[in-house]
Amino acid sequence: MKLKLKPTTRLKRRYLAITGAGKAEIERIILDYLGILGWAKAAPFFVSEENNRIILAVNREELGNIRAAFEISPGKAKIMKVSGTLKGLGR
After folding, report:
1. Domain membership of residue 74 as a residue range
2. What is the total count of domains within the chain?
3. pLDDT > 80? residue 91
């Protein structure tokens, strides 16, 4: 029998399309603003990297903190679009 998670315990993610930075710089931006505990709460992971655009998945509750981290960062990294599905980022 396959064990399943209830929909209420499943992690709900938002997908961010980010331009102007590499993976290492994105990690640094998030860690500098949120720290280790914030990183663990946001649970970010890189989905794909294509055409100078990186898709990052984060926990829905921490989306505001992730946006704030990119706003105050001195680099050129920008969040171009946020979506609840990967298909929505392609539109």
Report:
1. 21-84
2. 1
3. no
Cα distance between residue 47 and residue 23, in whole Å: 11
Q: Quick check: 47 and 91 in contact, CB under 8 A?
A: no
> What count of other Cβ atoms lies within 10 Å of the Cβ of residue 25?
16
Residue environment code for 52-91, b if the CB has 16+ CB neighbours within 10 A, otherwise e = eebbbbbbeebbebbeebbeebeeebebeebeeeeeebee
Structural domain contains residue 2: no
Confidence class of residue 28 from pLDDT cuts 50, 70 and 90? very high
Q: What is the DSSP string of 60-87?
A: GGGHHHHHHHHHH-SSS-EEEEEESSHH
Please tell me what DSSP assigns to residue 21.
-
From the CB of residue 14, how many other CB atoms can be counted at a distance below 10 Å?
18
